[in-house]
Design brief:
Elements lengths: L13 E5 L4 H12 L3 E6 L20 H10 L3 E6 L5 H14 L5 E4 L5 H4 L14 H26 L6 E5 L4 H6 L5 H21 L5 E6 L6 H7 L29 H13 L10 E3 H8 L11 H9 L12
Helix pairs in contact: 1-2, 1-9, 3-5, 5-7, 9-10
């Protein structure tokens, strides 16, 4: 199926991206703006927020205002609202403001995470639960699950006010893949599979109201933090694949990485599909949706590292990485 994601595909739609500061959230907000939507960008990293909304990534330069400006520059209307999604009163106030100013939500994206630092890097992965810091682990659960529950509780009434609403839960790994693979730690594993299950359970509850819920995982995401880790930018990211003095060289599979806009275009394709209910309760990847809908990443390619992982790296198939891009 081919969907043309033109600049007015979502004109007049009201979208909320919860956790829009950076990474997948920023990419999704940008793509929604690219399609003409009004995009409400929430998060804790605000140029105008006080300490009550300070992010766990305190000190990083990205803000929700930058994301909103990007969505606007691409043709939509970006609106930045500082919200700590662990604070029910703040999310309730967000819901009331949206109800007053817009009357509804057409697309809700639950992308809240904020635990990238807490989960640690590869040297800390595969550490048994009894050797992990319990408070850090519980914080991961709060940031990755509780935030989504609070957000859905207050914002879904605005999504089901009319048929056709779309809820997107952003995670890492499909339900099928995660069911067969241990993911980094007990806490991380539980969160990422839990978010897949949230799409399933909320899809059950949305269906009678004409709504759709779907979990989407990006592949290897070239987030701001990932690019910084390899000492490259989006403009020259391929250079991370070659050795250079003073720079951390990326593994070969980084060749199948994707920009944050890719998962954003997946969300846009779903929102633009009048028959999106076919995906209700499903767990899919950005690459799978790109194959189905025909959209591409910003460089014109269709990276699909999850399919490459299962078919080639783990499945024994002989293939070139270029066959999966």
């Amino acid at each position: 199926m081919s969907v043309v994601l033109h600049e007015s595909a979502l004109r007049g739609r009201i979208a909320v991206v919860a956790g829009a500061t950076r990474g997948a959230g920023r990419g999704i907000a940008a793509a929604l703006g690219e399609a003409g939507a009004t995009v409400i960008c929430t998060g804790r990293s605000s140029a105008r927020a006080d300490a009550s909304t300070r992010s766990d990534y305190y000190g990083r330069p990205e803000t929700i205002e930058q994301t909103a400006e990007l969505a606007t520059s691409l043709g939509g209307k970006g609106i930045a609202i500082a919200v700590d999604h662990l604070e029910p009163l703040q999310v309730a106030a967000l819901a009331e403001r949206i109800r007053t100013e817009h009357g509804r939500i057409d697309v809700l994206v639950n992308d809240i995470w904020g635990a990238e630092v807490l989960k640690g890097g590869p040297p800390q992965w595969n550490t048994p639960i009894w050797k992990l810091d319990l408070q850090k682990g519980l914080r991961i659960l709060r940031l990755g699950i509780e935030t989504h529950l609070v957000t859905s509780h207050y914002l879904l009434p605005l999504l089901v006010a009319q048929p056709g609403g779309l809820l997107v839960e952003v995670t890492d790994g499909t339900a099928g893949y995660n069911a067969q693979h241990y993911r980094i730690s007990v806490f991380y594993d539980l969160v990422k599979q839990g978010v897949n299950r949230l799409a399933f359970s909320q899809g059950h509850e949305l269906a009678p109201h004409g709504g759709t819920a779907i979990a989407i995982t990006p592949g290897w995401l070239r987030s701001e933090m990932m690019l910084e880790n390899f000492g490259v930018t989006e403009a020259n990211w391929r250079e991370a694949l070659t050795a250079r003095e003073g720079r951390h060289q990326a593994p070969p599979d980084f060749a199948l990485s994707e920009s944050p806009r890719y998962i954003g275009r997946a969300v846009v394709a779903l929102a633009a599909d009048a028959d999106r209910s076919r995906w209700n309760q499903k767990s899919v990847s950005s690459g799978e949706l790109a194959r189905y809908y025909g959209f591409t990443d910003i460089d014109g390619s269709r990276p699909d590292i999850w399919r490459y992982t299962t078919e080639v790296r783990e499945g024994g198939k002989v293939a070139n990485r270029n066959d999966y891009r």
